[in-house]
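Rotation project, supervised by the postdoc (A.L.). Task for the rotation student: set up a whole-complex structure prediction and record inputs and outputs verbatim in this book. Inputs entered:
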Amino acid sequence: MNHFLTTEGVSREELTALLDDADTFVEVLGRPIPKVPALRGKTVATMFFEPSTRTKLSFEKAAKALSADTMSFSPGNSSLSKGESLKDTVLTIEAMGTDAMVVRHKATGAPWRVAEWVDQPVLNAGDGAHQHPTQALLDALTIRRRFGTLDGLRIGIVGDVRHSRVARSDVFAFSTLGAEVTMIAPRTLLPINGDGWPAAATENFDDVLSELDVVYLLRVQAERGGASVFPSLSEYTNRYGMTRERFSRLKPDTVVLHPGPMNRGVEIAAEVADDERSLILEQVANGVAVRMAVLFRLMGGEHDE
Amino acid sequence: MDPGDVERALTRMAHEILERNRGTDDLVLVGIHTRGAPLAERMAAAIQGIEGSSVLSGSLDIGLYRDDLDTRPKTELGKTDVPEPIDGATVVLVDDVLYTGRTIRAALDALADLGRPERVQLAVLVDRGHRELPIRPDYIGKNLPTAQDERVTVHVSEIDGHDGVVIQPGGTT
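Outputs recorded:
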């Protein structure tokens, strides 16, 4: 593995090895000194061409916990606003002496282009509505730490699946790890070529509610046109929100995940978000561990070739 | 070394650890992943058999502390499970083979991130020489003079199904 760009096509063995390492890093992060010297002397550039708070902070914390230095880049105060091309920006930052690049961009495929241009590992931190592979890893880790395995679990992904890079990354990762995934959304928000996704689909949340082991609620993404597909937000909540009433119909050990940031009262009721069966803060904590695992995998040893 | 030799060496080292430290107070045995870990557990059991009082044991993975991460092939990270707190404890690090000393250097760094033991000692089943760092063992199962191109392999029944130590001639890698 030379880059980490997608969960699609990544083998079960590779995903499992990353999750095993991430378990180790969860333990490291719980130590009195939550830092190891594995990447001492290396520099990780976090290049977020699209706004982000949690993912950027999470990658920076992961790099620092491995003793790497970080350099960050955000478009607002960069030469991009002076007309510099993406390629020139990336090559300029590489020339300063970075050892890996974490890239988020609103254009699908941008991290793949960056990976062609530079001579170092590239990590996709989200490209458009396409992929967000470290999110899928942290979701899988959170589920695995709760249930021991994903094998045979029934996982429902609810909401705007079509415009969600989180959903796409999750569907491929979860199914590769042996889970049975169901996408739950109105037809207009299901993938157009849904037969390419290794998942079932339904428009009726209530039909499958009581069979699920994991309910994964997607955020209503106003910025990607998600909200405009519904007559109103309350219409969305009525049909697809995790209300207290729906929560009470879940199996007793079913857990709820959400990638954040949450719209409380829209896709998730405030009481559900704060329930002990909602693993949302565990997801955030596990995010640092899986990003450490990916950085260590790509930077912490001999390359595959 | 055959299985009997290994068992006798572990038992003798258990006695030596007790003698040197005058009992089991504040004693913690920490085995280095992978083959040091079962050896530490066995010595802890032996100490309990001799002294009647229990002694804590744990395991330490040093994969994140190596000084050769850039040049060696990637290995899976192992489990670190050291009994807490180790502040003020006497920690006996346990490993199968002592060679260059670099693993022990890494283990000392890893240990320092977990706390501040009162003292640290080192027990190894086999000392094969060729140190590259100023590190020496406190307890030795067997001194095994080797040529640098030879390979020393320790088998432990918990991982390999049987106990034993074999030297393979150089050039076979």
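Student's summary: Residues 3-168 of chain B form a domain with the Rossmann fold fold (CATH 3.40.50.2020).
Supervisor addendum: The interface with chain A takes residues 61, 63-65, 69-74, 76-80, 109-110, 113-115 of chain B (CB under 8 Å).
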